[in-house]
Structure formats: structure tokens, C-alpha cells
């Protein structure tokens, strides 16, 4: 028996994994209070089963419970599922559900709701790989759900955690309407620690305590209020005045530095481990000159990652050397690095057949960037303009009116180079594969393989790693994958986006998970 945190035990019986509730007593935090959270991202709706993104996940995980939850050390714990067991061949997983859990309207949660939710996620969620191996979910009784898989799925438990697979009520969402546009997406009924009260898009979301939550004596807070504030100065003032308690996904240097000086506030990078946001430069490798790896390597050598991190980001971000973030269990540092070397860059461009003309230029290209965050997107793009001029590349920086305009251009492959920010989402199967698999070059779909990269060897490695249940073997496979793509550099990785949570010191138990503020807040309380 191995202890998994303060409340649960992990039993390993041969190839079988069972997680059970241990019921260890702990001191009870104080009840009451309202936590006000501010962010600049507004959710299109509140149901994470059919929509990805931080804004949706922050709300959805409070309203809906999931089968499992994770701690800070990547360990799974029971949530709606009391226990689970993998079959010897890894092709089925049996979940035993709590018998006391109910939706906010009083209806009991059954295995039918679990099956309906999983298949709804599979059919509608943009992250196709995470549920692709799930062929069906059997429901032999109301409190047993058996996931039948086409292949072993080591990322299944993470895929079933709250930000990715909320359990939604079949009696509401199973009425035949399109789940993506269902009217209840804007006034949802879930089973999570907080109930929906009111929502005004682009302004606020109000949630209140679920008095019938299935975990005894939780949640501790009376209310959670999300306020969606676009103006950066207003967000800072709200935190300074105490009008808000928590500022999530803060990454602007001015926000972090100014608010870190406030005596009543704390600033932390914790809670973004599973999110894994990487800022990078993507090449459209379908077309010349970027179809030539020497050109891609030359541009990588000409960009000074260290300058971007230390000067543009004031040292708040972390360098990224590959497609997996450094704090992931699957990260490998054994990859090709492209430290600034203008001599190498010039030599590679000469070798690739792009000599300098009389004006000193070799060729011209356009760099796009995703609007919305100047420090992570616009400023590095403008820096590239001056930097690449040193090796004879003339750069035009192209802005987009808004995110949809940029996304339409990039997803339809109408670009040469673009800045981007893409998330790992906890497991490479969920957030990394999509960028590199040959068959995921899907026109019109943003954050797929928009650069058109295709290497059958990489596909083979990712396919093996995606069904390998042995952790050490998985790490080795992903290490090999990272080495290959770093050498072929279809993407030049710059930095891990410096997400911070800024919060009032009286807020306790915040960020107790790899999902941080995208995890349920039933353990959060306010010190009076």
C-alpha cells in the first residue's frame, strides 16, 4: 500500500491499480466567504465537455465533478469514482462510483451519465486523441462504468479529470440537441462543489455553494464570483483595493512586478504544471524556403531565446527547448539547442542556396503573431525583424485585427512564420501529439498540425508512446521524439509562458493540483 496524499491510498496488485478512499481526518478549515476571481478571458459557455480553454475550464470544474482528480505530484485521486481497476491487458478500466452523489437538481449520478459524458466528449471535444481509444462505456449497474478501449491508454485517467471530462447529466444534455449549442451550456446543472446562479458574458459569473455536495462539509466558500476584466490597469487596481481576491493566468510583467510588492498579496507560478503553455515560432514547412531544414535551423540560430526571456520578459518566463515543458514528467533536456550563433546561421543559409544580394538581403518573409499579449507575441515578433536582418532576411511583421482573424489565417495555412502559444494539457497524448502527427494537418482547425510537418518515424514513436503503460518506457519514447523534432525544428520553441496566480493572503488552499485554478475549489477557504 502506498500513500497518495492525505486522504487516499494507492494499492498496486500486480498489473492492477486500485485507488480507494482512506478517510484520514484533518483539521477543518473555516466556512464562509466569497472569492472573487478576475481574468481577461471570457468563456463562450460553461461546459468543458465540448469546449477547451482556460476560461471555460475554470468555471466548468466548479460546476461539474469528474471521475478523478489530481494532486500536485501528478497522482490521481477518487472524486466521483471511489475506485478503479485496469484489466491485465489494459483494454478495459472499471470504475466504481459513489452512491451518494447527486446533480444540483437532486437527480442521482449513475453510470449512464458517465457513459453519456465520455462519449459526448469523444464526439465533440476538440482534443480528439484523449478519447480516441474509448470505443464504448458499459454500464452493468448504476454504479459501475467499464471503459472499453481499442488499445491501452496511459493518459485515460488524466483525460477523465475535471478540466477535460466533466460528468454532465444525461437527463438534461441527452435530449437530442447539439451539445455544442445546447441552451443549458449557459445555465448548467452539474454535480460539482458550486451551483450556477447567474452569468453575463464578458462581465461576470456567479456561483454559490452546493449544500448537497457529495464530499462531507465541502465546499467551504459561500460563493465564487468570476469577473471578466479586459483592461489591465483595472485588474491591477481591483487587486490593490481588495475588490478581487484572485487574479489568474497573469503573465504581464507590469502586473506581476507591481502586485508582488503589495503586502497583502502573494504571487506564485504553481498550479500551471499540467497546462504547460509554450510560446513558439511555427514554420509552414509545406513551402520554400521553410521546406529546407537548413533554413529553419538558420533562423533558430539567429534568434536569441535568452534575450527574449531575460529582456522582453524581464526574467519571468522560462526557456523552452522542445515540445514538452520542463516540469512535465516526460520532459527531456537531451535535445539539440540553438544558442545564438549568427556565423552558423549565415553558413546554413549560404549552404541552402540563399546568398545575400547586393542590398544584403537573401529573401523576404512575413511573420504573423497571435493578438492579445504583446510581451509573448508582438514584441518577440518585432525583435525577430531586427535580429534576422543581421543574417540577410527581410521581415515584415503582420498583425491581425483579432484572434479569429489570426486563427483563420494560420489554420488555413496562409502564413510563412507565425508566433503561437500552445498548451501541453498534461499528457503528450492530449496536447503535444496534435502538433506533430501527419494525419492531424487539418485545414481550418487551429492548434492542429498547422505547419504541415510529417515524419513517419515520429508518428510511429508517438503511436507507441500513446499506448505504453510502463512509465519508464513512455519516458524513453518521448525522449526520442523530442530529440528528433528538435533536430528537424519545424518549430522553434522560445519559452514557457509565465502564468502566475496573484492572490490575497487570506485565500487558503489555492492551487492544490497540477491543474491549479482549473481544478475544483472545494478545499479553498477564506481566513477571516
Number of helices: 15
Unreliable residue stretches: 1-26
User: What is the terminal-to-terminal distance?
Assistant: 38 Å
Query: Main beta sheet, described?
Result: 7 strands, mixed
CATH topology of the largest domain: D-Maltodextrin-Binding Protein, domain 2
Q: Which architecture of the largest domain does the CATH hierarchy give at level 2?
A: 3-Layer(aba) Sandwich
Helix proportion:
25-40%
Which range does the strand content fall in?
15-25%
Largest sheet: spatial strand order: 11-12-13-4-14-22-15
How would you describe the shape?
Answer: globular
The CATH class of the largest domain: Alpha Beta
Average pLDDT metric: 93
Please state the CA-atom Rg, rounded to the nearest Å. 24 Å
Q: What is the total number of structural domains?
A: 2
CATH homologous superfamily (4th level) name of the largest domain: Periplasmic binding protein-like II
Structural class: alpha+beta
Amino acid at each position: 500500500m502506498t500513500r497518495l496524499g492525505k486522504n487516499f491510498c494507492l494499492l498496486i496488485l500486480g498489473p492492477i491499480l486500485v485507488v480507494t478512499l482512506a478517510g484520514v481526518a484533518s483539521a477543518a478549515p473555516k466556512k464562509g466567504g466569497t472569492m472573487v476571481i478576475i481574468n481577461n478571458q471570457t468563456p463562450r459557455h460553461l461546459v468543458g465537455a465540448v469546449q477547451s480553454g482556460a476560461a471555460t475550464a475554470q468555471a466548468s470544474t466548479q460546476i461539474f465533478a469528474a471521475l478523478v482528480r489530481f494532486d500536485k505530484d501528478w497522482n490521481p485521486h477518487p472524486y466521483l469514482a471511489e475506485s478503479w481497476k485496469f484489466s491485465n491487458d489494459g483494454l478495459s478500466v472499471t470504475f466504481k462510483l459513489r452512491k451518494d452523489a447527486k446533480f444540483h437538481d437532486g437527480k442521482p449520478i449513475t453510470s449512464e451519465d458517465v457513459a453519456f459524458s465520455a462519449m459526448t466528449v469523444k464526439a465533440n471535444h476538440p482534443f480528439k486523441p484523449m478519447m480516441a481509444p474509448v470505443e464504448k462505456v458499459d454500464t452493468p449497474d448504476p454504479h459501475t462504468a467499464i471503459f472499453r478501449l481499442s488499445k491501452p491508454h496511459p493518459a485515460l485517467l488524466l483525460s477523465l479529470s475535471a478540466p477535460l471530462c466533466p460528468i454532465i447529466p444525461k437527463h438534461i444534455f441527452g435530449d437530442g440537441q447539439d451539445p455544442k449549442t445546447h441552451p443549458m451550456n449557459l445555465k448548467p446543472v452539474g454535480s460539482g462543489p458550486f451551483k450556477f446562479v447567474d452569468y453575463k458574458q464578458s462581465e461576470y459569473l456567479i456561483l454559490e455553494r452546493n449544500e448537497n455536495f457529495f464530499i462531507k462539509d465541502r465546499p467551504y466558500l459561500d460563493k465564487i464570483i468570476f469577473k471578466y476584466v479586459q483592461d489591465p490597469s483595472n485588474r491591477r487596481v481591483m487587486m490593490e483595493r481588495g475588490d478581487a481576491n484572485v487574479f489568474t493566468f497573469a503573465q504581464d510583467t507590469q502586473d506581476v512586478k507591481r502586485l508582488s510588492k503589495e503586502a497583502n498579496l502573494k504571487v506564485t507560478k504553481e498550479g500551471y504544471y499540467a497546462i504547460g503553455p509554450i510560446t513558439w515560432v511555427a514554420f509552414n514547412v509545406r513551402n520554400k524556403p521553410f521546406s529546407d531544414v537548413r533554413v529553419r535551423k538558420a533562423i533558430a540560430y539567429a534568434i536569441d531565446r535568452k534575450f527574449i526571456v531575460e529582456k522582453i520578459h524581464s526574467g519571468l518566463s522560462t526557456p523552452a527547448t522542445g515540445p514538452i515543458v520542463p516540469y512535465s514528467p516526460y520532459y527531456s533536456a537531451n535535445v539539440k539547442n540553438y544558442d545564438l550563433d549568427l556565423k552558423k546561421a549565415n553558413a546554413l543559409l549560404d549552404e541552402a542556396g540563399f546568398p545575400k544580394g547586393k542590398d544584403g538581403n537573401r529573401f523576404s518573409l512575413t511573420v504573423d503573431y497571435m493578438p492579445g499579449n504583446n510581451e509573448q507575441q508582438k514584441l518577440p515578433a518585432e525583435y525577430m525583424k531586427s535580429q534576422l536582418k543581421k543574417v540577410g532576411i527581410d521581415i515584415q511583421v503582420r498583425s491581425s485585427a483579432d484572434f479569429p482573424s489570426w486563427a483563420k489565417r494560420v489554420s488555413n495555412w496562409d502564413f510563412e512564420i507565425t508566433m503561437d502559444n500552445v498548451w501541453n494539457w498534461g499528457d503528450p497524448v492530449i496536447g503535444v501529439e496534435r502538433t506533430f502527427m501527419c494525419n492531424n494537418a487539418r485545414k481550418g482547425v487551429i492548434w492542429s498540425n498547422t505547419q504541415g510537418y510529417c515524419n513517419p518515424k515520429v508518428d510511429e514513436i508517438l503511436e507507441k508512446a500513446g499506448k505504453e503503460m510502463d512509465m519508464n518506457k513512455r519516458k524513453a519514447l518521448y525522449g526520442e521524439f523530442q530529440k528528433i523534432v528538435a533536430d528537424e525544428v519545424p518549430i522553434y520553441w522560445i519559452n514557457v509562458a509565465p502564468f502566475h496566480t496573484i492572490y490575497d493572503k487570506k485565500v487558503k488552499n489555492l492551487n492544490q493540483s497540477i491543474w491549479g485554478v482549473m481544478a475544483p475549489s472545494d478545499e479553498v477557504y477564506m481566513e477571516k
